[in-house]
Design a protein that fits this description.
Length: 118
């Protein structure tokens, strides 16, 4: 791998680390419809403004969010809508994994029940 590939992998790891929290993923989905201020985000997440601010700061540091001041409020938005697409792709992978796990579980239960009938 060349230097650029390594730097890209490091940035990818930073973004994945920043998204590795349920509250932060909720923030991504909250912001899909547009900008919100930290207070509204905290309310939607049922958390404290201080906790929401910590998550928002980490996501901004990772380049996931942008912000702008509007009067006394700071409005947050997704820096790039592609983040939503990436999260959506991960959800599709997870759905397929769950389907396979459910299928395996169903087959295992069916086999166990047929053995009991013998």
């Amino acid at each position: 791998m060349d230097e650029l590939d390594l730097r890209l992998l490091e940035r990818q790891a930073d973004i994945c680390k920043a998204l590795g929290n349920v509250k932060r993923l909720q923030i991504v989905y909250l912001l899909r419809s547009g900008e919100m201020n930290a207070g509204d985000i905290a309310t939607a997440l049922d958390t404290t403004p201080a906790n929401a601010s910590q998550h928002l700061h980490a996501m901004k540091q990772a380049g996931i969010l942008d912000s702008q001041r509007q009067g006394s409020n700071i409005l947050y938005r997704l820096a790039d809508p592609s983040v939503l697409e990436a999260c959506g792709m991960i959800r599709m992978v997870l759905r397929e994994q769950l389907k396979r796990e459910q299928s395996i579980l169903h087959n295992t239960i069916s086999l166990s029940e047929s053995e009991l009938r013998r």
